[in-house]
């Protein structure tokens, strides 16, 4: 079933129970996430849910309507430019088995393992059997990138793309969307793949977990994919259903970050480009490479960017609310920009050639973020390693854990 605003049969008389403060669409039951006002038009108080308002309002005066969809198999052929590695193939087989057994799965894979391609066969099989498929991620950037890749591979399939404000829908049979969009589906998908699961607090945000569970059909498979699993994810899939991939698709080791003990805020506040940072960028550019400089806060980035650009003309910066964000990323991709300062918005979902990475204020990042950031380098077969520097004022558990996770991957071990 799919929840639709204006059409379909009534599923619930109202979207929100105004007495108990429960949203029937997203199952939010925390009173502080509801808003109440008096509506002269309705002649009564109206309560609406703030948790899911960005996919359309669920309130106490409007019924929730649903439409039913019939299952429809399709041949669902796909095209891959390369052959899966032995490890990728083994992981792909496990997911196909899980699909037949209707069990869930956790794909614990190093960044750059080629996770997306590993689920192609399961997607194809699910669609051949008439199951609806959803590929979801908490991040809009990832959703867009994945939609492009899937559309390129599954050329005969109509693939929906859904995220806040954007809807490209066919028949909701093969859907790529943000996790929040799942609030609109009930008992619908036979296969749900959650990419970058660590980017939202799956274990602590019950609503999102509920959304995945409720959107899944009675007999279904949910595949969680992550480079940094937590206990909640393992519990979700079941410890016996964890598949690990410690090698990148091209087989090379991950670069180990080099830590430079240097804070930069003092210099930046005096409007000086920190010498250590300048030296690193100079070295990178001299080798004909390009660099992403990760900065913990927008306010610091705004001060740092002009200092970097004064020394390295063309150095740009990007953050999540930046309207020119996609143009700037393109510019980095085609090499017009060679130094790009960024917040964690580019920590995942992007691939640039000949890329090195510098993290300033590394002591303020958590290890999930740091692992993803390191994963930006060495993603291409013709540039399989790359360099990573952490500029940190002091050591932290997260820095140590990041280095341990990466060393373990290189040794073929996982960090659980
Ligand atoms: Zn809601």
Automatic annotation (TrEMBL):
Keywords: ATP-binding, DNA-binding, Nucleotide-binding
One of the record's GO molecular function terms: DNA binding
Domain Helicase ATP-binding: 96-247
Signal peptide annotation: none
Helicase C-terminal domain residues: 276-416
A Gene Ontology BP annotation from the UniProt entry: DNA replication initiation
Pfam families: Helicase_C, ResIII
Matching PANTHER family: COMF OPERON PROTEIN 1, PRIMOSOMAL PROTEIN N
Protein name, as recorded: Competence protein ComF
Organism the protein comes from: Salinicoccus sediminis
